[in-house]
Amino acid sequence: MPRIHTLRLPLSNLSLFSSQSQKPRLNNNYRTMMNYTKAASSQAFKNKKLLFRQLFEKDSSTYTYLLADVAHPDKPALLIDPVDKTVDRDLSLVKELGLKLIYAINTHVHADHVTGTGLIKTKVPSVKSIISKASKSKADLLIEAGDKIHFGDLFLEVRATPGHTLGCVTYVTGDGSDQPQPRMAFTGDALLIRGCGRTDFQGGSAHQLYQSVHSQIFSLPKETLIYPAHDYRGFTVSTVGEETQYNPRLTKDEEMFKSIMENLNLPYPKMIDIAVPSNMVCGLQDLSVKPVDASSN
Amino acid sequence: MPRIHTLRLPLSNLSLFSSQSQKPRLNNNYRTMMNYTKAASSQAFKNKKLLFRQLFEKDSSTYTYLLADVAHPDKPALLIDPVDKTVDRDLSLVKELGLKLIYAINTHVHADHVTGTGLIKTKVPSVKSIISKASKSKADLLIEAGDKIHFGDLFLEVRATPGHTLGCVTYVTGDGSDQPQPRMAFTGDALLIRGCGRTDFQGGSAHQLYQSVHSQIFSLPKETLIYPAHDYRGFTVSTVGEETQYNPRLTKDEEMFKSIMENLNLPYPKMIDIAVPSNMVCGLQDLSVKPVDASSN
């Protein structure tokens, strides 16, 4: 059983690992893509809490996700996998929507683009960066399987999904009648739409990726929405049901999967030598504080 | 008052303009991004009918939208603004999701890419193409303001939004408790996220565009989701509330708007001489039948 940490940081005075228990407040058994400022006063939007936006960075085909609890008075928000180039766009949107950005989160140490988390922290110092402990990277909060990341009355659950890198995690919206339904899984590069991340760099392992996806993602309800870190063909979303049926790699048995992954013959990642060292320290190479463990990977 | 046409084509035997009245069947006062095959049997998905997918074509930054009524036994579906290059992707997805594609629809005669509607018809001959009568283009069905395009128990309402081109329309999901909430407006190039289409070609008019957006789109409920034909900065969706507050052009008065549009100094559209003649005939220039009115614009 994974150890359970609960990250519920007071919005006005951030501190780690408060033990305050989760108190469901509204019966919210459906999800919405949008829940606007005046939602709480509108019958049509009663109990709809999640504001969700998918954002795209074209050069690296990266998706950044903005999630916020707009039923909470502070409208606390988080960004998953922000990109350095699009930080200004993302922060403008956060401001326009009246949100309070509290977390900038990575699914893993990206090799194809520089994360925006460090840059965000220079512009909004109260934002806390989050990455997995297993990534051996520097961030304000290092999370592990079973941890929960709370924003208002909503939360993300952390699932360890190594294989593309050693430290890959998948963030899944909470289970429960007060959380968005269907659930949403932010899979990073572990599971892509009809594909998956490569396994030939950064401690990658086809065996490990196969086990991760099958045990941690395919075990979710079929209607769970899959939001990956990238798509190169213009898809924006998939579901567990679709990927278990149509993913051309992960529907195979493990031996076949490993054979596919060993024979991809992909070029050396063109950004890896810039992106990985930078992303080990939240995208800022010139941080004055030497990153913990950054030299060991 | 716009004349009301009702397009409710029997799925097995398509014919025009049946007068069958709309009969709300389910109390579906919320929307979902995804409603999977077994939805009807699941308590969590009861009454959720709309399957919705946003798809992106990177070269022209075009969004194609797939909508289907998955509570209907036939799972009837339509595509809005398909692109020729991505037709195989779109049709594969339709097939994998078990949908029956009945319409391929354009918001207008595009100048920046070739529509996929003609190509779709060569691959799935039962699909009917749709465009506005005002576009003076060739299609199976020519629609006007007030028409309704039914797919299963769901429908799109047609609103005339000229100004980018003479024949631009916006498709809005139906009003009513049995239709998706919030409503969704597919605005083509009339209204973009924090922008709008240019008005210096194809019968464009800044005056007309300003009037169109204010009277036909900004008059929708604030929570209405805006899904444009393009985005160049990585946004995927906006709302009427956001655009009435933050659109840098359309929040100005009309004189200022016209001045902005007259001074954009945009380059000549690089695809226009290929795309427009082709799109006047559903993207197929070599159709044996001479298109109606295609030579007049």
TrEMBL record, chains A, B:
The lineage of its organism: Eukaryota, Viridiplantae, Streptophyta, Embryophyta, Tracheophyta. It is an enzyme of class 1 (oxidoreductase). Residues 61-230 form the Metallo-beta-lactamase domain. One of its GO terms (molecular function) is metal ion binding. One of its GO terms (biological process) is hydrogen sulfide metabolic process. Its main location: mitochondrion. SUPFAM superfamilies: Metallo-hydrolase/oxidoreductase. Its cofactor is Fe(2+). It comes from the Eukaryota. This is persulfide dioxygenase. It catalyses: S-sulfanylglutathione + O2 + H2O = sulfite + glutathione + 2 H(+). InterPro entries: Metallo-B-lactamas, Mito_Persulfide_Diox, POD-like_MBL-fold, RibonucZ/Hydroxyglut_hydro. Keywords: Acetylation, Dioxygenase, Iron, Metal-binding, Mitochondrion, Oxidoreductase, Transit peptide. It comes from Populus alba x Populus x berolinensis.
